[in-house]
Amino acid sequence: MDRIGILVDRRVLARAMRGRPTIERVGLYRSVALELGVDIVVFCVERVDVKRAAVVGYAPAGEGWRRVRVPLPKVVHKRVLYRKSAPLRKLRRMQRRGVVFVNPVKIQDKARMLSLLRREPSVAAHIPPTRLYSWPALRGLLGRGGSAVVKPKIGSLGQGIVRGVPLGTGAVEWTRRRPVVIGRRSLKRRLARLTRRRRYLLQDYVALARYEGRPFDLRVPVQRGPDGGWLVPGMVAKVAGTHPYLTNMAQGGRAVPGAVALRAAFGPQADEVARRAEALALETARALARRHPFAADLGLDIGIDRSGKPWLFEVNTRDQRYTFYNAGMHDTFRALYRNPVAFCARLSRELAGGRR
Q1: Could you tell me which of 121, 110, 115 has the C-alpha nearest to residue 149?
Q2: Which residues are within 8 A (CB) of 271 and not within 5 positions of it... i.e. 6 or more apart?
Q3: Where residue 274 falls among pLDDT bands split at 50, 70, 90?
């Protein structure tokens, strides 16, 4: 079996090798690789020499790591998102050299992701109406009495997301962190400034179920495990904290085990609501894999409305796993690192068998 690559951000790798804390728990990759008997190298894209098909990174050694220069792995678990063209070009060059990325390079655009999933009837019914932002589209939605969410086409951690609620007087309650009542002409100018440099999406707002009086949604990871099949290791609820509607930890939210939040919101129906959310997650993953066969580690944001219906908000190709750790779900947290390494090892064996 070939060595497995774990591709992480340059700054994350530097901090981890100095023993400093990072969101990406690099040490857990070492632990699960040793448990599974899998050779790994953790590296950043800046240390890849595509021409020589080599990479400088770090491999487990004793109780820590050793710096190594090794052949470019044929299977790489990608744990970083790139917006700039230079690293994306390098990833495409690596693909031309035969590297398989788990998850693939091309599936981090949220608009394209949702467009693909709308073709699947079992998933489409759970996607809130979503389109590229334009002022006429927003004006029409507000004019019909609908509430709206405007969010970056590519982004994470809840950054740049705003919500508008029509007040029926020609004004809108517009919320970033604190609600502001403004006229629609002023709103148009604000959004023109906001969307000048980045493309945004417009999504119908879904009123979420509540835990202890605060809205929450679910982070539902869907992964391929050692046998190659899809599984849901667990669910965690992200509960809005200091922010009026955003649930992300980076926006002041807090993490609670999903079962706890669902029981509080739905009582005896909680298990059925959880089953619906899990079924939606698995259907979404299978649908995505029909287009991107090496998708294997996804984090879905699923909102539950007050009737118990699950709504698919986003599919994240770099799941922020620390939410499970914050919720005290440590076994699930470890499984989220273990499953992709086990799957990559399986994939490596399959590819090696095909080369013989």
Answers
A1: 110
A2: none
A3: very high
